[in-house]
Write a structure and sequence with these properties.
single chain; alpha/beta; 7-stranded mixed beta sheet; about 20% helix; globular
């Protein structure tokens, strides 16, 4: 856990390898949660019930069966997104899609830096394309 300048504890929500079939619906938008890891849950197929964490900086869904951004919330502070070894992670333009869905300031997708032109494209096209992606379209 990390401390911020206000001495508030920053937490990691760790649901790795818990046999999840869905994101726990009782998960709350807690301003102290900085990182959420849902990796290694091979039955997990959707972002449904993921809260729009205001201060979440890192989101990991590696080794799941998530195949689209359907039901993905806006995550205004997200900087790092990882979906390695998932159907979603196989798509071209994943960095642009993540920037359109989560926020246009995302810095890293699957360990690769997001290019400046991707940020610009996402910012210019957020309104038109976010709903398309969160409806489950790729």
């Amino acid at each position: 856990m990390l401390l911020n300048s206000k001495r508030q504890m920053r937490k990691t929500v760790d649901f790795r390898n818990k046999g999840l079939q869905c994101i726990p619906p009782n998960l709350k938008n807690d301003c102290s949660i900085e990182s959420a890891d849902f990796s290694s849950n091979p039955l997990l197929t959707s972002f449904r019930d993921l809260p729009s964490f205001d201060f979440l900086k890192k989101l990991y869904i590696d080794h799941t069966q998530i195949n689209s951004f359907k039901c993905a919330p806006v995550l205004p502070s997200l900087e790092v997104f990882s979906c390695r070894n998932t159907p979603l992670g196989q798509h071209d333009y994943l960095d642009l899609m993540a920037a359109l869905v989560f926020n246009d300031g995302i810095r890293s997708v699957n360990g690769k830096k997001v290019a400046v032109n991707v940020h610009s494209l996402a910012s210019a096209n957020f309104v038109e394309f976010r709903k398309y992606l969160t409806d489950g379209n790729i």
